[in-house]
Amino acid sequence: MNQITAAPRTGFDIIVVGAGIIGVCAALDLQRRGQKVALVDAAEPGSGASFGNAGIMVNTNLRPVFAGMTPLSFFQMLRNPASPLNVNWSRFPAMVPWFLRMLRHAGPAEVARITRALGDLCQPGAGLYAEIWSAAEAHELVDGKGNVALHRSEASIRTQWKALSQIREMGVEMRQVGPDELRALVPSVSHGYTHGLYSPSFQHALDPQGLIARLVALFRARGGELFREEVRRIETQGKRVTGVVTADGEIAGESVLVACGTGSAVFAKAMGEAVPHQAVGGYHVMLNDPGITLDRPVLPIDFRFAITPMGKSIRLAGIYEFGGQGRPFRKDLVDSMLAHIGKVLPGIRTAETVQWRGYRSYLPDGLPIIDASRRKDGLFYAFGFSSSGMINGASAGRAAGAVVTGARPDIDLSPFRLGRFA
To answer: CA 52, 268, 253 angle in degrees (round to 5)?
Structure first.
């Protein structure tokens, strides 16, 4: 190993590890609270899971992805080529305990508890994001025309309407639409879809990574320092965190917030705080010459992948790949989305594509960790956001800022405690 000889960088109140949406929003909130902040990430800010997603920024229709599943139905979904859930079967036996732990949260009582916690976390997001986008002069990178879930029958939409009853009771606006209004909202949709569930509060990014670049520019304009360096370890002295060590030397700080997605669990384990974590692959494909116009995101319930307009392009996203780390890119998963998109949006062109895979941080109860370390003073965590990192960026950043500074959080953070896995 090369000896690190660079002089330490000092004087920071807090070092945020991870420049995805969670880390950047946390860094901005910590600045708001008067902290001197360093943001550290080897990659371009927002180039990981915060880049490769469906782009939804404001969504209050959150339920755990495993809601209502049983071991049998889950296994059947993994075996179904049309399902968004996929697994590397050679690794399946070792993952069974994690899957069974996940399914213990799939019953009605647990789904209600988790949905309430996710709702409490994400509901302040619209207002908090509006403040951030205004300060970063980034409003033109966000669109707010809502979202439509597409159904092929009245029976199908009745099933979803019932499943979302708790979310409606929480005050989330949504309404059922028939064929005429569906066609007005999504003129290019196939006539095979006869009903829709319209959620007007949805907002989405037209360029997720470009949006994060604006937020990082705001962070730096406010005096924050960005280090494009790989964090090798968290430095400690006794029970106290003293900073991080990167490939270029030490960065010293009073506290460290670990918010680097799938890498966070590695740091937590090194601190003696292992959690039941999975890095779940997510795929997307950008159609750069779609040949049709789409005004708002849509979700075909029969195919379960998101279709999001981003400028002149359209992004397809929503595939889950368990056990794919270190394995080749699964082109068949992208091909599955491409095979179905013409059934949703007839006439769409799929010849010009850009394909991507990245990994998202999953915990078995579908809830993130936003909490202080139980072992090291000055160490904090914000990770495990599954597929809702972009949605929860602003509100999770505000919550993490409160935890780090010892302020009273705006919401109940007990569902997100690290100790629930003890």
So the answer is: 90
